[in-house]
Amino acid sequence: MAQAVHTRIAVVGAGFGGLGAAIRLRRAGYRDLLVFDRGTEVGGTWRDNTYPGCACDVPSQLYSLSFAPNPDWTRSFSPQPEIWSYLRRVADEHGLRPHLRLGHEVRRADWDGADRVWRLETQHGTYTAEVLVAAGGPLAEPSVPDLPGLADFEGEVFHSARWRHDLDLTGRRVAVVGTGASAIQFVPRIAPAVARLTLLQRTPAWVLPRRDRRLTALERTVYRHVPGARRLARAAIYWARELQGTAFLRPALMRFGQAMARRHLRRAVPDPVLRERLTPRYTMGCKRVLLSNDYYPALNRKNVEVVTEAITRVTARGVVTADGREHPVDTIIFGTGFHVTDPPLARLTRGADGRTLAEHWGGSMYAHHGATVAGFPNLFLLLGPNTGLGHTSVVFMAEAQYDYLLGALRHLDRTGAAAIEPTESAQRAYNERLDRRMRGTVWTTGGCRSWYLDASGRNSTLWPGYSWTFWLRSRRFDPASYRVVAAAAAAVPGRS
Q: Is domain 5-141+339-485 given the CATH code 3.40.50.1010 in the classification?
């Protein structure tokens, strides 16, 4: 049997979270690290999602690492190719390439209590690591509904996160399942080309105008040569977004946003019947708020139909809805999001008692500071439970977690401990506070069912507050909330 390759720190995921963590770790002197990713290039969700019209709905100046600024964004909201290019450049400019293990899918991660290491199984062999940083991200694994009869469909089927660029949609009859953040971007791009587009909508979304524009050459020059101007623009956008976040915490304020969205809908959709189908019956913010200027106009096209009846089954040549009608199609595109509340890595990661993270969670994610879990020594989650946001950039949250991770590593170095994990009591108290703060927010009172909620109905994905309050709580590692795992007596096989 080949000897395992050892590294001090293993980072799983080479998207925003993993690359940013690797940069901060290197800067802090932790250079014995490897970054694993199943893809053949860095980028995470911005590598995988290449559907037509893919772009970010957070302003460009804010949707980037603060310590790796990009003065060359061409638009106020960055398109996917630019974000992916930025992440590749970040990996190059910050010397991460030697640390990358691309094409290495981590198929299993087990805590070895005897040797005090994590054992990672990949298709290229076994690795051991003293510290495991899970940076797979919440938007990594596409979610496809298990529709009756789908296996018998004779046409083409794919998820928007695995776009079939080899398939020409011109003249095809296409069913789009889902009307979330991806669908509102690609539907306007494919609608003019297809013969017929049937949009299967479960719940309409609140849609606001997208205030997007091309950044001028002068602006980019100023951002490149005057760092203070770039930082000022970033700060202005950040605090404006934080102000908007107040309405998520105090839903009564959402009436102002709803009035703007209704006006946007009225102006774009003259047909009262279609407009009625597209009008939400829940409080804005309960589901993800979407931004688009061309989604509603695309739905006005004669070759587009919005269907609100539920899908009951799929036949060989179409989709049947609850009204008994069969919609003939030859292509089905799922814009149905991702496994956010049941991340695949949780089923592959086994802690000190041999049980998986998914088994510990029992259907509802939890962690201490969104980062560590009792029973999983030296496991650090990036953008883990209750770190998502409804109003601003999650990159900010990831950066806050880097500080917490570095604090934990310094604590290990100072104490000489092999590992740490949060106590059950500290973890429980932290999550009880979160759940109390979640009451009264739009996500629990808004009257909708969203992907923010897990199978138990609990919001285990979002942070119930302003992002700066999360940053304050993450600035310093809290050793009193942790128990120490003593160093192993024997050397670790494969450790150099």
A: no
